[in-house]
Every structure is written in structure tokens, then in C-alpha cells.
Amino acid sequence: METIKQPCTAAEPLIAAAQDLQIRRGGDGSFSLWCGRFSCLRRQRPSYGIDAPGLVRSFILVGVAALIVALAVGHSPWPGGVVSLALSSFGWLVSVYALCMGGYMLYGSLIGKVRARHQLLGLLPWTGSEAVLDVGCGRGLLLTAAASRVPFGHAIGIDLWLAKDQSGNRAAATLANARAEGVAERVEVETGDARQLPFADGTFDVVVSHWVVHNLDKSTDRARALDEMARVLRPGGWLLIEDIENHAEYVDQLKGLGFIGVRHIASRFWDKVRGFITFGTFRPGTVIGQSPFQSW
Ligand SMILES: C[S@@+](CC[C@H](N)C(=O)[O-])C[C@H]1O[C@@H](n2cnc3c(N)ncnc32)[C@H](O)[C@@H]1O
To answer: Does 109 contact ligand 1 (Cβ within 6 A)?
Structure first.
């Protein structure tokens, strides 16, 4: 039997189009798929900013300055002595410490916390229809992750948008991240203070807050913020606070407010290591609890 090879005319335009496909990267971090002259799909990459950008900058500047001092003293033409050895060693020590701290903070903002957020939200029992509040949402790290867990609910973020606490901290950046994560239709943002939440009692099923409350210097302000979070939770709703210090304070207050099953979740080993390296200023951990089944 003779086989006649015929060109598959229907497939030709598809093959030509596939050969014409290109992925282009925009200066704003977006990606778009192009077919010839036509853009088929455009997707912005979410970006959750750098926390405490001033501190990160200071660590890097101090690290570089100390490195220069250490190198200059080490290579100076003058005869070395105990003083120059001590200065050079101190320069190296400060430089390594400051650069490691700056690098660790950058890693935490850009990679660590983005990876950890789904595990964190996995601590809560989701039904998919919750009303969620993210207090101090910044550029929406937990807000968008929570919105992706509530296809039949919604998530509201509230913040004062302080530039000192997060780089590029703006409501528009948060909404852009919600679009990039494909959850924009379930996300809203508002401007407001954690100490005076503009919501009625019992509005939310879940309240979350990530690396926010420690920014309030006075313990009375932190207590007010927690009171407010408890007030806007419905009876039986869940509260999750991830922070870098003050966990015992939060646990005591929530227990005092009658919360059920209040827990402080942290790795003992890493808590000790991080606490030692950062002089007790960075000991991330989670406080979680369920609002009492009674009206406020
Ligand atoms: C370190 S950022 C964390 C942002 C976000 N939760 C995250 O983890 O990416 C701290 C956030 O708390 C906000 N913030 C600080 N004090 C606040 C207050 N009193 N009320 C509301 N937001 C506040 C800042 O504007 C900032 O967005």
C-alpha cells in the first residue's frame, strides 16, 4: 500500500504561531507573552517589598565602611602593632556581622517570608468563605495568600502605608500584587490605624497580622491594637499574629480576653540562635487563638 504524505494545512498556522511566540520581560517586573506583533497574556510578578529598608541600608553601609577600614589598616605601609591588629580585627568583625545581617534581612523580605506565608496560614482551619482582615497588610503578603484560600469570601487589608516599615509601601502596590496573584476581585484595601480599626464588632471570621504590632513602641499601643483585632473578630473567629518579639505579652493579653487555645508557635532552637545573634531583637514566632464564643 502506498502512503501519500500530505502537508497538514490545519496545523501550519499553529506551528507558525508557536514559532513566533516570545516571552518578554518589562522594566516593571512584568512578563508578557507575545505572538508576532500581538501581546497574548500579561502577568505582573508580585513583589512584597523590603522590610525596614532604612535598617537594611544602614547594615550594608556600615558593613562596607568597616570592610574598607579593615582592608586599609591591614594594608597600611606603617608598621603594624597591637592597635592596628585590634582595629583591623574589629573592622572585619563589624563588617562580617553587618553584611550578614543586611543580607539576612534582604533574604527574609524577598524570599523567606514569601515562602513561609502559606505554611503560616495553613495553621488556620479554612472553609473558603471567610471574611479576612490583614492588619498592617503592607504590600499584601498575607492578604493575597488569604484571598487565595477564600474563593467564596473576601480579604481586606488595612495599613498606614509607612515607608520606613516597608519599601514601596502604597495601597496601589498592594492592589497590583493582588492582580498579579489573580485574587484582585476578592481584595480591598483601606487606610487606617491598627489601634482604631474602622470596622464594626464581629465583622471578620479571621484576623491576621504579620510583623506589624512590634512597630508600636508603647506596650499600651500594642495592647490597644490587640483589643481592636479581638473586637472585630466574630465569636469563634481566629486570630493569627506573626511577629518578631513580644509574644508572651500577646499570649497573656489574648488569654485575658478569654481566647481559646492560645498558642505561641516557634522553633526553640532557631528562637535561641536568632535571639543570640540579634541581641534578642529578631525572634519570629506566631501567636494563634480563637475568639471566645460570646458577643463582645
Ligand atoms: C514590616 S511591615 C509588614 C507588612 C506586611 N504585613 C508584610 O509582612 O509584608 C509593617 C507594616 O505595618 C504598618 N503599620 C505600622 N504601624 C501601623 C499602625 N499603627 N496601623 C496600621 N499599620 C501599621 C506599616 O505601614 C507596614 O506596612
So the answer is: no
CA-CA-CA-CA torsion sign (259, 256, 113, 192): positive
The residues spanned by each domain of the chain are 11-44, 53-105, 122-290
The Cα–Cα gap between 23 and 89 comes to: 49
Amino acid letter at 154?
A: H
The verdict on the CB of residue 181 being under 6 Å from ligand 1 is no
What fold, for 122-290?
Rossmann fold (3.40.50)
pLDDT digits 0-9 by tens, 132-189: 999 999 999 999 999 999 999 999 999 999 999 999 999 999 999 999 999 999 999 9
Torsion over CA of 272, 273, 279 and 284, rounded to 10 degrees?
-70
Atom of ligand 1 nearest to the CA of 141: 9
Q: Is 162 in the pocket of ligand 1 (CB under 6 A)?
A: yes
